[in-house]
Amino acid sequence: MAGREMNTLKAWARWRPLDSTESRNGEIIRGSDQDHDSQQFRISIAAPAQIQTLSSREKSWKSGCAFDGVIEPGENNQAVYKRVVAPIIPDVLRGRCCNFFAYGHSGSGKTHTMVGYDFANEDEFGLCFAAARQLAIALDGINAEKHTDNFGIGLRVYELRKNSAYDLLNNRNECFVREGPDRRVYIRGETETLENGKVRVRPIVTRSCWSFEQLQQELQDGLKHRKTATSTIHDQSSRTHAIIEMEIITKDLLAARDSVVERQSELVPVGKHATDVYIEEQLRAMIQTKDGKYIPNPDYNVDQKRINDAETRKAEFESRVREAEEHESEVFARAAHVHQCVGGKLIFVDLAGAEFLSGITGPGLKQTPQEKQQGRQINTDLLALKEVIRARSLAQSRIPYRSSPLTMVLRQHFEASSDAQSSIIVTVSPGAEQYAATMNTLKYGDLVGLANKHKG
Q1: What is the rounded average pLDDT of the residues 242-250?
Q2: Considering only CA atoms, which of 3, 10, 1 is closest in space to residue 422?
C-alpha cells in the first residue's frame, strides 16, 4: 500500500481508573512524553513509597519510543475506538485483514476494552461491537449503491485453551487445532457419521449476520459461554483467549464454502477405504516366520486391481473436492468484482490475563494446582505471541508460529494482514498493589512496539 509500511503494528497503553478498593492503597506514579522526531510515546512509572519489597532497580522504569498513544483513565471506550480502530475500517472495506489484541494482567481492563459490559450504552461498546456497528453501516451503503442485499458479516467466536478451541456460537462445542498436510492450520469439531457412510468434520460455525442488531445478539449470546476462573488477582478472570472474527461475506460465498465441506465429507470414507484396501493387500502378501521375521507370502499375490479400483474412486472424490474449491474461488472473484470489500476481516483477540506471580495477589484468593497449570500455559502462549510479532516485525526468515496453539491459529490472520495495520493495546492498572504486574505489562508492550518501530 502506497505511503504505508508493510505489516504495521501499533502499540497502545490504556490506563484504567482506580476502583474504590485500590484508591486507599495508593497509586503508581506515572507519566508520558512524546518524541517529536518519531511521534512515539515514552512511558515512565515509579513505585509509591509504601511499596518496600522492590529492589532499587525495580522501583522505577521507563519505556523506549515504543507506544503510538497513551489512553488515560478518563477516556471511555468510544474514545478508544475512534483512536485505535475507526481509522482502519477503510482498509477492511478494501478486503484487507486487520488484527487487534488486548494484553494485560488479570483485572486490568482487557475484556472491558475489547467487549465491554454495558451493551445498552454505545459510548461503552467494546471495540468489537463498535467496529461491527460501523462495518454494518458501511455495508448497508454498499448494498444500496450496488442495488443488492448480498454483502453481510460472517461471525465466528471461539476461545482457546491448550490444544482445544471451544465454539461459543455452537454451545461451546469442543474443537481441535490441527495442522493439515498442506501446512495450514484447521480448527475442526468432533467427527460426525452421517447417512450413506459419509463422515463430516465441521469447522468453527460461521453465523451470517445481515444487520448490526442481529450480529450484536449473536455475539452477546456467544460471549455468555466464555469460561472464567480464579487468577492471582480476582476470581472472575478470563482463563482462555477469546477470538472474535468478523468477515465480509456474501450468501453465495457461504453456500460455496458449505459445498466444500460437503465434498470433503464424502471423500473421508472413500479415502479411508482406499487406505484400508492397500494395507490389507500388503498384509496378506506377507507372513511371519517362527523367529518373528516377515517374508513374502508364496501363497498370495497382491490384488493390484483391487488397489487400483479403490485409488481410482478416491481420485474421483478428490477431484470433486478440487472442483468445489475452485467454485468457491470463482464465487469470491465474482463478489470482489462487484465490490472489493468481500473477504475483509476484523480479528479481535481478548487474551487471557497474564500471570505475574511476583505481584501482590488479591485478598483471600487461592489457586488450585489446575489453575496454576493454566496460568503457566497462558504465559507460554503470551510469550509465543510476542516472539511471533517481533519476528514478523523484524522480517526474520523463520516465524515461530508452532510455538503454541494460539500462534498456530493466528497464523492465517497474521499472514493475511501483511499489507494492513493492526494494533496491540496493553491495559494496565494504576493501583500501587499492582505495580509489578503493570511494569511487566508495559515491558511486554515496549518490546513488541520497539521491534515494530525498528524493523527493516
Answers
A1: 97
A2: 10
Helix (H) or strand (E) holding 118: none
Query: Per DSSP, which regions of 35-143 are E strands?
Result: 41-46, 60-62, 69-71, 97-104
Half-sphere exposure of 247 (CA within 13 A, CB side): 20
What residues are designated binding site for ATP? 104-111
**Is residue 134 within 8 Å of residue 126, measured between CB atoms?**
no
Q: If you count them, how many residues does the chain have?
A: 456
* pLDDT for 161: 87
Q: Which residues are annotated as a binding site?
A: 104-111
d(CA 244, CA 225): 13
**Nearest by Cα to 69 from 56, 51, 81, 60:** 81
The 10s digit of each residue's pLDDT in 174-209 is 998 888 777 788 888 877 777 766 677 778 899 999
pLDDT per position as a tens digit, 308-352: 999 999 999 999 999 999 999 999 999 999 999 999 999 999 999
Per-residue b or e along 275-312, where b marks 16 or more CB atoms closer than 10 Å to that residue's CB:
eebeeebeeebeeeeeeeeeeeeeeeeeeeeebeebee
Contact 418, 3 (CB under 8 A): no
What is the pLDDT of the chain when averaged over all its residues? Answer: 88
